[in-house]
Amino acid sequence: MNRQHSRRTDEWGTPSSIIDLARAVLGTIDLDPASDAHFNKTVDAYYHFSKEDGDSLTRPWLTPAAPTETTIFLNPPGGKTCNKSNVVLFWQKLMDEVDAGHVKHAIFMGFSIECLQTTQQCSRSIAAYPICIPRKRIKFAAKNGTYNAPSHSNVIVYVPGTVDETERFISTFQGVGMCKKKKKKQ
Hints:
alpha+beta; 5-stranded mixed beta sheet; two-stranded parallel sheet; 5 helices; 24% helix; disordered N terminus
């Protein structure tokens, strides 16, 4: 069995090559709301929320470094909470924080491109935002230092908030794969 698809862990870190690109778009990363001390060594966010800190889905995603609006890098855990997809729960929380005006801008890592489908039940789907579909599956990091690529495609999503760097996202991530802007309404 592919260990990445087993129930041993739902936590996989984003490789530094993707974090470097995210930082090129976002500038500093104020908050990683679904991380831990180990994975934050790579993300290097000023603050991170971990399972040990309590439920990051119920607290505001603001930090002392960014008390009114924050830049967010989010690689949500897999699996489910109360029989609901964590990807959907974290995506909806990000949408709620955008609606509250708390988000300067964000990058969301979709471990599986299936999130394009599952987030359609949210207030806004991932498909409504600029995306990058990597030409190769991203090799995510395990805590033991190994890297594994899932058996499915990934997606990287840019979410403008009070700042819109869509063009920078597209130009920065185009080397990773096909980037698409959301279509403007006519």
